[in-house]
Amino acid sequence: MTEMGRPYLRTAKAKGLSEFQIVRKHLLPNIYSKMINALAVSIPMGISSIALVEYIYNYNGMFNLMFASIYNYNFPILHAGALYIGVFTFILMTFSNSFAKFMDKLQAAK
Fold this sequence. Notes:
The protein has four helices and no strands. It is mainly α. The mean pLDDT is 85.
């Protein structure tokens, strides 16, 4: 929330804009790229949390299959699971960076 103390927001408030107008017209367009990147980083972290839940509660899922493949020396399944997670994370990060750049260009055009 360090963005809330910026001078352009104080100026907008001094001009008499409501909080909703300040957030919608000034704050959100300037923090879209930061929000997108933070969301893209937090999704793989959430997926890794699912791995812990599956392991602790012994749910049958992809990560439980990967843990079982370690114990059974079934490394092709482990490699496939790691590749799937890596490709998903790569695509997510690439998309989020591209979208953040697009939003920055859109903001600069205004």
